[in-house]
Design a protein that fits this description.
With 226 residues, this protein is an alpha/beta fold. The protein contains eight helices and eight strands; from the N terminus they run E-H-E-E-H-E-H-H-H-H-E-H-E-E-E-H. The chain is globular.
């Protein structure tokens, strides 16, 4: 019971309580998991059935738990495929990590260890985002992209989302923080694995506020009656 369309040049924000299905939806959207019922389609084609080698370059995915591997900075950003150093540098620059990488012992050739052990939490998240952005994918799905970022990182991420929208990228973000809200076009609210609401940002926010106010008034009425 989840049905929505994400368009090029738009940022769709997915929100909902813990265990409502947000991360599961992210995996379905990029074809990591198959749908038991229904389909996720990219330009009309089922993303799970699509040849992964052909589909991969067009999709960027940042999972909730950033998984990095025991290799170099460049290898991780390039997804352990053929390394286009210009594209690697561009992805690292756009997430604000160039100075960090330049300060490492071997720069882009620095091995980061299992799970990126030599990096901080915020640096691992930025590197995971750089990997998702590598090669300018047309669909970008970000699961909690700012959970380890400070205020400056939040602002950089917001500015990045706005630039990607202007470039025509289809953006889907899952987050519990409201720092991306100025760039959001549509909101999908999940509850118990189903779509509780979907539509333009301001309409959904107003509906959520109205529901919260009504719930608060009903609670106050019950207290008064008791």
């Amino acid at each position: 019971n989840v049905s929505f369309t994400a368009a090029p040049g738009e940022l769709t924000l997915v929100i909902g309580p813990t265990a409502s299905g947000k991360s599961t939806l992210a995996r379905l959207l990029v074809g990591v998991w198959p749908c038991v019922i229904g389909k996720v389609r990219l330009d009309g084609a089922d993303v799970f059935a699509w040849d992964k080698a052909e589909l991969g370059p067009h999709i960027g995915y940042l999972p909730q738990s950033v998984e990095l591997f025991d290799g170099t900075i460049a290898e991780n950003v390039a997804r352990f495929g053929d390394i286009d150093m210009d594209a690697v540098r561009a992805a690292v620059e756009v997430v604000g990590m160039t100075a960090t990488v330049d300060a490492l012992p071997q720069g882009f050739d620095t091995r980061i260890g299992e799970e990126g052990a030599v990096l901080s939490g915020g640096q691992r998240q930025r590197l995971g985002l750089a990997r998702a952005l590598y090669g300018h994918p047309q669909l970008l799905v970000l699961d909690e992209p700012n959970s380890s970022l400070d205020a400056a990182g939040d602002q950089q991420l917001l500015e990045l989302m706005q630039r990607l929208k202007q470039a025509g990228t289809t953006l889907i973000a899952i987050t519990h923080r409201n720092t991306l809200m100025p760039a959001v076009d549509k909101i999908l609210v999940l509850r118990d694995g189903e779509a509780a609401a979907f539509g333009p940002r301001d309409e959904v926010l107003e509906a959520l506020k109205k529901a919260a106010d009504e719930a608060q008034a009903a609670k106050a009425a019950r207290r008064g009656a008791a």
